[in-house]
Amino acid sequence: MSDHAALPHAGLPHSGLPTGWLAEPVASAPERVLIALSGGVDSSVAAALLVEVGHEVVGVWMRLHDAADRVDGGRKSCCTLDAADDARRVADQLKIPFHIQNLEREFAAAVLEPFIGSYLDGETPSPCVGCNTAVKFGALVGKGSALFGCDAVATGHYARRAVSTDGASWRLRTAVDSDKDQTYFLHGLSSEAIARARFPLGEMTKSEVRDAARARGLATAEKPESQEICFVPDGDYRSLLRSRGWSPKPGEIVDERGEVVGEHQGSAGFTVGQRRGLSVAADTPRYVSAVDPRTNRITIGRRESLERREIDLTGAATPSGELQSGMILEGRARIRHRGVLAEGRLISRGGGAATLELREPLWAPSPGQTVVLYEGETLAAGGQIAVPITAPVAAHA
Amino acid sequence: MSPARIFADHAAGSAVRPEVADLLADLYRDGIGNPNGGHAEARRSRAVLDEARAALAAALGVESRQITFTASASEGLALALNSETRAKEPLLTSATEHRGARALAQRHDAAGGAVSLLSVDGSGAWVTDSQLIRDAASQGGVALLTLASGELGTIQPRADLIRIWREAGGGALILDGVQAAAAAELRFDEIGATHLVIGSAKVEGPAGIAALISAPDRRLHPLVPGGGQERGRRGGTEAVPLAAAFAHAYRLMSDERSATQRHLTQLGEAFDAALGSPATHGLIATGASDLGARLPGHRSYAAEWALGDDLVAALDHAGLAASTGSACISGSREPSEALAACGLSDAASRGGIRISFGRTNSVHEARLAAAVLVATCARIRSSYTAELSR
Questions:
Q1: Which residues of chain B fall below pLDDT 70?
Q2: What is the CATH number of domain B6-13+257-389?
Q3: How far is residue B42 from each of residues A86, A321, B231, measured CA to CA in Å?
Q4: A100 close to B (CB below 8 A)
Q5: Which of A54, A99, A297, B74 is deepest in the core (most CB within 10 A)?
């Protein structure tokens, strides 16, 4: 499985569409489109563009959790009452209807609870992936269709779409602005979901979007980016875990030989690749290389010891469904948003299990995080980094 | 969106009627401003304010000095309660009160006062044969109650309750007459209340003004101290044009009440006929089924298969302005406490919807509103899966 010489050295397009895939066609007839307005500049411009090309647009702001009852002076999150007000103002400017949709239950089931469970299992969750898959392009699509007769759901994501030459299947395609490309977070969308998705900003750069907002005098034109996880307002997910009954217990920090080198205050507070918060004296920087919630033990190592050429995946799938056993996909893989793209191949063992073999190593794959594999500009498959069956430390085996 | 919209949310507030809007514009154009001052301009404003107060007093059967203008009905209730409650005395209120009254009751509770919740029957009507009322009254309690529910349309059996309350020696009786005022003439002396609140927006007057009518012997403790305005009961410069417009709207409403009631009754009948059996559309009729105990032109339902907010959004998209009837924070999926108190399931309590017609609606609109409701229910029910909506 680690015979990297067998990987092809040439023939992988670094850009463009792979054989059998076409750029998404320009919508020829007006559609009734639901736009998910976050109250930020991106979705505002996306809405404006849809209106300008003649679509019938319905604006919706999603109430996802009770952070919505807060107001945020700092204007950092997309999920507060201030954000809802901004979304409403933009809808008003564009003269489109505006509704608040409650998707708290869907969000709790698909995002919040798995997020907490994932941390407690020693993983590092990707909440935005679940939100996009199950909420924005899941429940919201259903509501848009049922309540407003909308055929499609648009967002301000930076992404494009590709369609197979026979028109039967859809894939995500990276955005023109590679710095802003968000296909990583959208990887869970099925072919059917992608068919109904609209990404009006896919051909634009962020600065073009800003300019477009300014040119149209949109209320959100100067609004800063939101970066944090929307339901963890201060970025402090440990206090969220505590509010859900997690009581941190001190545990051992061990080095790669299994020797105890320090103590931590709760393993769910740590993520693979983390350097901060390790009160361990060493000559060179040390990073978390494994988190084991069963033993409440954290393993640390030198930077180079976190490099991996083989990464096991769970939930590996293409937009058209689960990968069959023995199927091999070649392309470029990425294990974090805007992370390094590494050439490799994904070998399916069926049932969502797969191994990613890489030509060059990737650093610090964190269990729970998303892996995506691109064929050219299209996102061919994705999955989650599996928790290693055996910890990297021999002493644990 | 449908080009011709139907507005059927009059219980939330109607548009200002043109005669009243004209009066408002005239007053602002004439420079009517601060009525407090030693000059002719202030005296002119004062005269307009005095006249407004006198007109309202006449309509309600009280003296001018019994009327305090406030910025909202909620403020009027808060002012009355602030003046009447002492921390330890019980407060009698009901489970079907609107949020403003409930918030006041919660505050009383938080301050250590006991809150007695008057139970309601399946139509949301007070259960007046209740030891609870006598207990609260005999302990010198204060009652805060709404005469007609904006959410359910139910007109309360106030005479029974007030009689029992008074016989048991109850303290101040603070009544919200905002919805009830348009349905039947409210004469303060005949009702037997200690305080009564009426609002402007529900009688086609401007929002931002309401009146608290108090028994002559009651002293009000201002929430906002100030320069002695409103006889020292409420600080802040009086909104003279709003008060005048409110009084004018109230007089017009009073003059036309009988004719308007007949019209609203017709609208309700036309709507019912076009709707057919609510159950056919998956709707549970809520509030009083006896139309005589209901605000005319007011209909309310609950759906177990959708959130009320979602129904309202879909109706809005189809051109019908309706409401859940329970004003709450944006998109919250809290169940309606009023619907729950009527014994509805948790799911149905989240699925409340209200259609309330006003003087300006036509019979054609009432029929059309029913057709829109029918079509919308059919569409949502067929495309929603239980999992999706719940």
A1: 1-3, 327-331, 384-390
A2: 3.90.1150.10
A3: 41, 77, 16
A4: yes
A5: A99
